[in-house]
């Protein structure tokens, strides 16, 4: 029996992710949306690319949560989009109700699944999904750090003229303006970036990483990023579905790690067949710790706005 993955929300992020998953060919995929006929149309279009690309994935579009029954992984992308001039914080009240309702249905039809939250403000929405689902923290993950780190690695690779594959980096903290790119630990083929890039330029790259989502929103005019976000979710799903035990930055409900309790914060995490396998604790210097604490305070403030 083939594995099953559900993507809730057939917008740009959701539908692009479904296409990427279909091409992986390791699970059948269900795309849910409340808009009548829209997920059905997109799913059929993706399905018809199978003969050309050589995959046998069954892709189903639906407006009925019953079709998602028995999913192994459910990705929540649904919610109001971020608009120009709008911070992730502005989104919190709008999307709190949506994620709560979606999570209730997910639990009803797939009580053993692993949930990956993509909806913004990410850290706050993951907190909602954990509370509503009642799942253990190992089965509720937030996608943020993979994307932020991908942006950081892209900018560094462009700066030094190297392959992105040679760039290793981590971004910690909340998925927002207070994220913490760890420049001190960033390397290019093992060489610390401090030996390749001036401190002033590193700081500019760090700030561009923090503004990465807003930069794309501004350029697009309407809508927000979806190619890199969907690729980032795919990396998480790969590690879970194939039990790869990859370590990547994800939003995790911390239970004492980094001195933080009961709050979703982006940290390096090992993902495998059970979802979260292990939280990796990095020794931070005083400045990095201060930045992380500021980021944590911002997430805690968001959660407070939701009243949970």
UniProtKB/TrEMBL annotation:
Protein's GO biological process: lactate metabolic process; tricarboxylic acid cycle
Keyword Nuclease: no
This enzyme's EC code(s): 1.1.1.37
Annotated positions binding substrate: 82, 88, 120, 151
Family annotation (InterPro entries): L-lactate/malate_DH, Lactate/malate_DH_C, Lactate/malate_DH_N, Lactate_DH/Glyco_Ohase_4_C, Malate_DH_type3, NAD(P)-bd_dom_sf
Domain Lactate/malate dehydrogenase C-terminal, first and last residues per copy: 147-299
Alphabetical UniProt keywords: NAD, Oxidoreductase, Tricarboxylic acid cycle
Molecular functions per Gene Ontology: L-lactate dehydrogenase (NAD+) activity; L-malate dehydrogenase (NAD+) activity
Signal peptide: none
Reaction(s) catalysed (UniProt annotation): (S)-malate + NAD(+) = oxaloacetate + NADH + H(+); (S)-lactate + NAD(+) = pyruvate + NADH + H(+)
Active site: 175
Lactate/malate dehydrogenase N-terminal domain boundaries: 4-142
Annotated positions binding NAD(+): 9-14, 33, 95, 118-120
PANTHER family named in the record: L-2-HYDROXYCARBOXYLATE DEHYDROGENASE (NAD(P)(+)), L-LACTATE DEHYDROGENASE
Homology family: Belongs to the LDH/MDH superfamily. MDH type 3 family. Belongs to the LDH/MDH superfamily. LDH family.
Annotated function: Catalyzes the reversible oxidation of malate to oxaloacetate.
This protein's name: Malate dehydrogenase
